[in-house]
Design brief:
Oligomer: homodimer
Largest sheet of chain A: 8 strands, parallel
Strand content of chain A: 15-25%
CATH superfamily of chain A: Aldolase class I
Helix content of chain A: 40-55%
Distance between the termini of chain A: 48 Å
Structural class of chain A: alpha/beta
Strand order of the largest sheet of chain A: 1-10-9-8-5-4-3-2
């Protein structure tokens, strides 16, 4: 282990989209923009800001065009938006997005339940969107869900994951995020899957998207780093619940990821203190404590310090 | 990584002592015994049940002798108790304990603040207790705190940690638990420390004791496994806060550890469902949600299932 750790890791912040889309209560557009701009100011360089999806499906994302139009970020920060179909792509393009993200599942059952399509139909949609994106010189990120464990089928067939990964790259996506959607993977599963990706050029464009539902997210990141992965998704404060287990922890928290990488001497460009400020802001926005470990430890230390200062 | 994973790992459950000792509210002796017996029934084979410490220091542990006398466990379960000095050792011995645990810090500042002794004075106490324990054929476990990061001194000097580890084995302890007391270590620090322990016989008797304060506990376990460690401490539900950051996560949760090991095909002897029952019981005892990730995910799934069943 650690024979060939990368000098630098790309963090893709998915909180404003993957986190907020699960919020039942409406989050005002101004608050979303405030959070995205704070995330940009913390040194994060890649932020998925919204989803151009039908408001009938996800009402929380009905303001996608407004968010995209109004958010102000330094030129060093790239943004992307999720699109489920060509219609969503056209809206994203009209809003000036330079990168979009498409998604599909690695198992038939999850594909059916999540987007009401077979895997083959989902691939067709991706082909359609990628063709349009290429024509418009828009970068495409792909998400492949439930690559380790599926809530309906149990352990996912890794050969099928590799087949779909290859297919997505063949179609022309620029980056592929492999998702442990229910947060059930262990490090050996990460190693086993990545051992099957033998093309170094593909490996360099693969991101890992972990959920911390069972506490294994950073152990899985470590296994990913050890397998040559240099891109990881995370969400501020761990925002974004697991729809299969309400109340449980969901996305890997950006602060936990950034802390571990920073302790390991791996550059991320992120200012941890500013990230904690963002986590605090995210908590104010969703009006509850978020599950991120580093966030809670840091906010608790800050509160203790303030108490000591106030008593002096 | 994973070139030489162990077939089996020894989990040392420290919840009843390390977890409960930090509880402000008195926990009735009956409840403690109920929890310890449930932990034994879950397949855990090593449980630190109490601490023979002055009730003036830790009132929560005033019932140590009663707990030790009354708890009923299968013969396959070994128990131990923490002792701070010879007086505590004599009480533990009188209570029939077959294993005790001594403790000291790896930094002068933490040693002073925690037990009001220099490191040299703490070593003298250990010498005294170990001599008495050897005479009584009682097994001795040693805890060395703040081996990676100290809340007062920052990064701990690894050479000093190795010196103290060697000294403790030389004195005659049977097992040594190295503690990331403030939960700040990252996997590279674990690897770096263990690379300095060159004696294979010592390595086989070293346990790692992680806190999940910043989410890195299981990543650190992975680094430990990869360095040849086969003994890990954990606490049911992650019980046992971090005194330096009230409200933050403390001990690594036993369920999280057992889940990851089980997914990796490493035997622990533990039944995960029964462990979740223990976590639920621990929550009832301390009257709040515990930070363990697997516990919360599992309890949430159970609640969802019950809701579905009730509506059918």
């Amino acid at each position: 282990m650690f024979d060939a750790l990368p000098d630098e890791v790309k963090i893709v912040e998915v909180g404003p989209r993957d986190g907020l889309q699960n919020e039942a209560e409406h989050v005002p557009t101004d608050k979303k923009i405030q959070l995205i701009e704070a995330l940009g100011a913390s040194g994060l360089r890649h932020i998925e800001i919204t989803s151009f999806v039908s408001p009938k499906w996800i009402p929380q994302m009905a303001d996608a065009a407004e968010v995209a139009a109004r958010v102000k970020l330094p030129p060093s920060v790239s943004t992307s938006a999720l699109v489920p179909n060509l219609k969503g792509f056209e809206s994203a393009k009209a809003s000036g997005m330079k990168e979009i993200a498409v998604f599909m599942s690695a198992t038939e059952s999850h594909s059916q339940k999540n987007i009401n399509k077979t895997i083959a139909q989902a691939v067709d949609t991706v082909v359609e969107i990628v063709a349009a994106a290429k024509a418009a010189k828009i970068r495409v990120r792909g998400y492949l869900s439930v690559v380790f464990e599926c809530p309906y089928e149990g352990q996912t067939n890794l050969v099928e994951v590799v087949r779909l990964s290859n297919r997505l790259f063949e179609i022309g996506i620029d980056e592929l995020s492999l998702g442990d959607t229910i947060g059930a993977a262990a490090p050996n599963q990460v190693k086993n899957l990545l051992a099957l990706i033998t093309d170094a050029k593909e490996l360099a464009r693969i991101a890992l998207h972990f959920h911390d539902t069972r506490g294994t997210a950073l152990a899985n990141v470590l296994a990913g780093l050890d397998s040559g992965i240099t891109i990881f998704d995370s969400s501020i404060g761990g925002m974004g619940g697991c729809p299969y287990a309400p109340g449980a922890a969901g996305n890997l928290a950006t602060e936990d990821l950034a802390y571990m990488l920073s302790q390991m001497g791996i550059k991320t460009g992120v200012d941890l203190e500013k990230l904690v400020d963002c986590g605090q802001l995210a908590q104010e926005i969703v009006k509850r404590k978020l599950p991120g470990r580093y966030l809670q430890a840091c906010l608790s230390s800050r509160a203790k310090r303030q108490k000591v200062e106030a008593s002096q």
